[in-house]
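Hello,

Our lab assistant flagged a job as stuck in the queue for most of the afternoon. It eventually completed. Since we weren't sure the result was trustworthy after the delay, we are filing this so someone can double-check. Below is the sequence as submitted and the structure that was eventually returned. Let us know if re-running is recommended.
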Amino acid sequence: MPAQISAPQAQAIEEELTLPSYEYVDATGTPFMHEWVVRSGDTLPAILANLGVQDPELSGFLATNAAARPVVQLLKTGNTVMASTTRQGKLYTLSIPKAGGETAMLVTREAGQLTVKEQPIIAEKRIHMASGTIRSSLFGATDEAGLPDSIATSLADIFGSEIDFHRDLRRGDRFSVVYETAYFNGAPVRTGRILAAEFVNAGQRHSAIWYGTLAGRGEYYTAEGRSLRQGFLRSPLEFSRVSSGFSMRFHPILKQWRKHSGTDFAAATGTKVRATADGVVDFSGWQNGYGNIIVLRHDRGYSTAYAHLSRFAPNMKKGSRIEQGETIGFVGSTGWATGPHLHYEVRVNGEPKDAMKIALPGAAPLSGQQLATFRTNTAGLLQRLAIADQANAVAQAN
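-- returned structure --
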C-alpha cells in the first residue's frame, strides 16, 4: 500500500518592501514647435500669431529694439520662421535661417532678458512621429497635430502621383508621419525630411518610405519596394494652405468638367500652375478658345497642355526646359471661359487621354538583394508608422 503524502503546510511570511522612488515630471514646460513661411503682406503681429506666439514682451522687443533689427529684416516673403513656445504662447526661442542656411538669427531669453544672436547651424537631428485625421483640410489636420506647414506640403508632394490633394481629400482620411527636425542648442531650427509616411485616402492605404544613400540621394518607395517617382503628377495645380480644404471641390455646375479633350480644375485667378512632368516648352502663347496656353513636350510621345492662363511664368519660351513641379503659369479665364479655371490635357502621340485615369509611367521597383536590404533597413520606420497610426486611432475612439 503506497505511503500517504501529507498535505503541504502553508506558512505566512511578512516582509517589509521598499518601493522605488519616482520623480514627477511636470510636462507643462514642454515646448510647442511652430513654423511659418512669410507671405506677401504679412505684418509682424500676423507672423507672430501664425507662430502661436502670444508674448507682448517679444512683440515690443522686435518692434522697437535696435538689436532685433537683423531679425526683423529677415521677415521677408518666402523666409521660414520657427518658434518654440510655452502652452500659453510665451516665447522660448525664435529662429530664422539666413540665406544659404549656414547660420541663423536666434532670439532667446537669457537671465530673463530677450537677446539676439547669429549662430552657425550645426544641427542635431531628432526623429519625431505624428498622426492626424482630416476634418476640414490637410493643413487643419497638421495644425491640430502640431506639425509645421512644410510637413503638409511634403505629404502632398510625396503622394502627388497617387492622390490629387485638391480633389480627392475626404473627411475622415488620416495620415501618420515620421520626420526629422534639426535642433540647435536644444531649440528646433528647421524641419527636415519626411522619413516615412502613410496616408489613408477614401479607405485606400498609401505608404512612402525614404530610401537613399549616405550622400543624401534617394527617393520614396512603398512598403513593397515600388517607387513613387512617377513620370507625371496627378494634379497640375500647386498645393498650398489656401487650396488644401474641401472648398476646392467644385460648384455643382462647374464640378470636374470632363470634356473629350481634358479635365478642368476650378481655382482662383492667380493660382500657380505647375508642370506635371519634365519636358520642353513646345508652344506658349494665345490659341483660339484656349486663350493663353502652354504645351509641354515629354518623352515617349507624351505632351501636356495648360489653358486659360491669366499669365505665363518668366522664360516660358519655345525650347525652354521645364522640371516636374516647376511653376509655368497662373490660373485665369482667358479664351472661351466663363470663370477662372485651368483646362488640362494629357496627350499620347497627339491623342487626348483622361488625365485622371491614365496609367502613369514610373520608375522600376526594387527587386532581389536591393529589396531585401530595403526591407531590413526600413523595418524600424514601418514600426514607428504603426505606432503613430495606432495612437491616432485611440485618440479618435476617445
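-- support follow-up --
The delay was a queue issue, not a problem with the job. The result is valid. The longest strand covers residues 187-201. The chain has six helices and 20 strands.
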